[in-house]
Amino acid sequence: MINFNYETEFTLENEQAYTDWLSAVIVSEKKNEGEINYIFCDDDYLHKINVEYLDHDTLTDIISFDYTVGNEISGDIFISVERVEDNAKDFNVSFEEELKRVIAHGILHYCGYKDKTDKDAELMRSKEDEKISMFHVEQ
Q: What family does the database annotate (predicted)?
């Protein structure tokens, strides 16, 4: 079950399209869908979590808490909408594209992908691109 929660003014348009997409991403990685909660928030909200739980005094776009057991992926994924907006400008992409990248990034971590080394980050980026291309909105 995929849930979307909002701790800021932002809301996803077409939540069902995102739910369908994320379910397909999970299946494409041969994983089972557990309970996944996305929490959209602002920089201050996510900074407090970063300091309190990870002892990092920095701004970030995403923090995920992985509760995966075996092949069933579950967890809480916090996303700063402010960071996504700034990163979209920095990377010269649309807000929607950067948001999809970050949303997929959290799921890919739960599927076992890492991004601490250059090699791992390159694979993560490739997987993000692959998963973003799977997003479709019914017309």
A: Belongs to the endoribonuclease YbeY family.
